[in-house]
Amino acid sequence: MKFSRNALISTYKKQPRDSKKLTKTALGIIQPLLQYVDYDGKLHIDIYEFARLQSFANKNSVIDGFNRLIRNNLFFWKEGELYANCHMTYLGKDSDIHNRSYVRTLGMHLDGTYQSLTERQMKLVNYVQALTYEGNRTPIINIENFYKNKLRKTRRGVCLYESHRDLVNSLITIIEKGILEVELLQNGKQPKVLNCLTNHTEQLYEKFSRFLGVDKDGRKTRVGNNTTHPVRFKLSKEIAEDTVVDIGHTLDMLLIADQYDQDTTLFTSDELESLFGVKKELFKLFGDHGVKVYRQALHKYFQNEGQSFYFHVKQGKIGNQVKRYYIIPLLQESLADFIDRAMGYYRYEPTYTNSVQWGTPSKEQLVEIAIEGEEYANYLHKQLKDEQYTIQHYQYYRYLKDTLGDDGVSVFADLAKVNVYWSNLHILFKDAVSFEDSLSDDHKALVLNRAYKDKKRSGENIYASNTREERSSSFPNYNWLND
Prior knowledge:
This protein is of the alpha+beta class. It is built from 20 helices and eleven strands. It has three domains: 1-105, Arc Repressor Mutant, subunit A (Orthogonal Bundle); 106-245, no CATH class; 248-454, no CATH class. 49% of the residues lie in helices and 8% in strands. β2 (75-78) and β3 form a beta hairpin.
């Protein structure tokens, strides 16, 4: 996951000198932690295990830093689980610079390079990262916007230093570590690059001082509207290219599988990609609820078909298996919840009687419900429109009828009249009644109990178990997280 720019800005605020103050260690563990954060913000690593893995600080310091992150609402507890409140889930292309409002996690955040900086240097690097665009460069910024002076523009830049000397000394340290490069620009409407300072540049301090107009006594030339000093920051090529792959969304599946004694080290990340792709698609469409459905589906899959997990992965069927037989039914239940809500607009109870009678909702009320549920209807239509899903059409028809009654089926039809996505889905179920009439009682029971799934699959070599103990001697110990 990415470090949200809004959360980043909150770390620049003047911190109180108490237990809420964000220490250097607290700032240093944010991005390493975000590597383990899922799409919905859930943290998939025990904080004590995380503290043990950090080499730049001792365990107690890391735990204290994490508690400070919680006190500043950058992480929080929900239903006994830890969640991040400082992350941004970015599923687009990294080159989409117009939507970038985050700080990427890079190798320097994990190998201790970033944590070796001072607190102000860390904040400055974060700020530069948040502003980088194509070519890993920031827009042009006046150097005066980073320290206290009367001409500092608050629209761009952040006041981190007391004087230009503090800023220059700090920047030189960052440059020498090979993290940032600084382009010194000529003042004007179309500024030209006068010099580019890198970790290979000699006499950094002298060149910076000459650019700022610092005299032999260390005094800086008085700044006027036309004598500001524009610069452009750039992440060094080595730092920018050392990207880190987030593993939070994959750890989610690993931890669930481990609850059912499934050995995921037998598979490569490519073999599990179809399952991860399903999760990404659900999050894009349904947000946090999509991730919740994915987890519920995985639990049900392992409970019912855990013995076939190895076969489904190796045959490339795992994504489709979980989607077709577990995710789609759960999303159908979610769609039924929208139908049930719409039914509430039909019901009313007169004050002079205890009986529930039916009214007629306005078209606006139906349209409102239909719009809220149209993503679910559209997704289900796309997944179920093939003829091979005819049995599932019938199953859903019976589910609605048994759960919501004939009135629920009728409301489904009314929603289909006011929204094209609901209409497309409703068409798939229109023949469910005639399909039911064509079934014998025995066949009907088979379909409703999904006993057809239990028939012997010809040519499939399904292992009776996939426990870690039974497979450790037969298969290589391959960890797909290290791909």
